[in-house]
Design goal:
Structural class: alpha/beta
Shape: globular
Number of strands: 14
Radius of gyration: 17 Å
Mean pLDDT: 96
Distance between the termini: 10 Å
Number of helices: 7
Low-confidence stretches: none
Helix content: 10-25%
Length: 256
């Protein structure tokens, strides 16, 4: 059987944490090139310990800094490493990805770095599948300030991983995960409205309720900021979802 392997490269929400990179998730299928889902600060260093960065396809759920700002570092790696990359890497993300990352890697505010020498870019489109690294990936538009997507990822064996990206509660939160084997859901806040803005991110209760409503087999909680209690978020999710729940940490590996 052809398994999909998920390795947590980084999972700290909004900012990096002590010895914790921001969002980044390595997906591997035997015999296929690896895929990295989100590429926040610190992810490139974690990636180097596991695979050759020149071989990866990058998928970005959205363009907040904690989900994409190690891509300019990958750009430098591919351009200037003594063993240069062959061809361009696939990059999939929101429509304005080339401009946003080109601004981030430019020499001055007035310049735009043309990243098309290094990346072959395609934009997410609702309902349009992309086949990458042996995986079929379908985006779902989510409830978050910039253009943001949850990703439903199907392995060659038919196993499904649903990734929420960053989102508040919305209809697609359940749709992206309906019947999935594993739901990788952000849970940035505890549920007390006094401790969080409305919408934008999920509480542990909201992540757990979405997992229950979608009928997923297992819930993995991620994107927990350094200032949020992991134990409290876990307890919240378990209060409304009776399947297995785990708060991920960097280096965790899961097979589907």
């Amino acid at each position: 059987m052809c398994f999909m392997r998920l390795t947590i490269l980084g999972c700290s929400g909004s900012v990096g944490g002590p010895r914790a990179a921001c969002s980044g998730y390595l997906l591997e299928v035997d015999g296929q090139d690896p895929v990295v889902m989100d590429f926040g600060p610190g992810v490139l260093g974690e990636l180097q310990q596991r695979v050759d960065p020149n071989t990866v396809t990058v998928m970005l759920s959205h363009l907040h800094a904690d989900h994409c700002l190690d891509v300019p570092s990958l750009l430098v790696w591919r351009r200037y490493h003594p063993e240069p990359a062959v061809g361009r890497a696939r990059l999939i993300g929101p429509a304005d990805t080339p401009e946003r990352l080109g601004r981030a890697s430019a020499e001055s505010a007035a310049m735009l770095d043309d990243i098309s020498d290094t990346f072959d870019f395609s934009a997410w489109a609702e309902g349009e599948d992309h086949v990458v690294g042996g995986l079929t990936v379908r985006p779902f538009r989510m409830f978050h300030p910039p253009e943001s997507h949850g990703l439903r990822i199907t392995s060659p064996s038919g196993k499904v991983l649903a990734y929420t990206g960053d989102t508040g509660v919305c209809d697609n939160l359940v749709e992206v995960a309906r019947g999935a084997d594993v739901m990788l859901a952000e849970a940035s806040w505890t549920h007390d409205p006094a401790n969080r803005p409305l919408g934008v991110h999920l509480s542990g209760v909201e992540a757990g309720q979405a997992a229950a409503d979608a009928g997923v087999g297992r819930l993995l909680l991620t994107h927990i900021p350094p200032w949020t209690s992991r134990e409290a978020v876990l307890a919240e999710a378990r209060s409304v979802y009776d399947g297995p729940v785990h708060a991920v940490t960097g280096g965790d590996v899961f097979e589907l």
